[in-house]
Amino acid sequence: MKKLIFLLVMTYNLSAFCQENELNFVDVEFDIEVDKSVYEIKQGNYYYTKTQSSAMQFNLMPNSYDDLKKRMIESEKEGYKNEVVIDSVKVLLIKTTQVNEDVKYTIAVYCKKISSDSTLVLNSFYKTEEELTMKPLIEKALLSAKIKE
Question: Residue 121 above 80 pLDDT?
Fold first, then answer.
């Protein structure tokens, strides 16, 4: 659990570009296609592996996609920052690595437009050596995520 808490704190720090002084997430539930054979544990909008080597956290921000894009570009946070296209959907991606207990992790924050004034923020991490397996699962979950009605 210590590893999971540490890495989730790192993803919060990485996504801090979203708000100037605090993270202002809206409490909603999402419908998400998650590979339950890999992400076996679900708690609210959190999904993680049994070994806690990867996790995803889904949040809704009351900010427009364009506002978050501007903040990302202006952010002084280090790491890869860009707008990318995944299966014809534009998303913002901030990505960095972090070493914890001698294991290198990739931390990726994705932002996807939900409406004109709200954006889905997906905080995720995985062992860097498992990127070829985990990244497609995370991106599939991102693309499938919709607010539960």
Answer: yes
Q: Could you tell me the two tokens for 4? A: 């999971």
SS3 call for 139: helix
pLDDT band at 24 (very low <50, low <70, confident <90, very high): low
Cβ(107)–Cβ(54) below 8 Å? no
Domains, the chain, in order of start with CATH, read 2-147 (3.40.1000.10)
- The pLDDT value recorded for residue 20 is 44
Residues belonging to the chain: 149
Distances (CA, A) of 69 to 14, 45, 104, 110: 14, 23, 27, 11
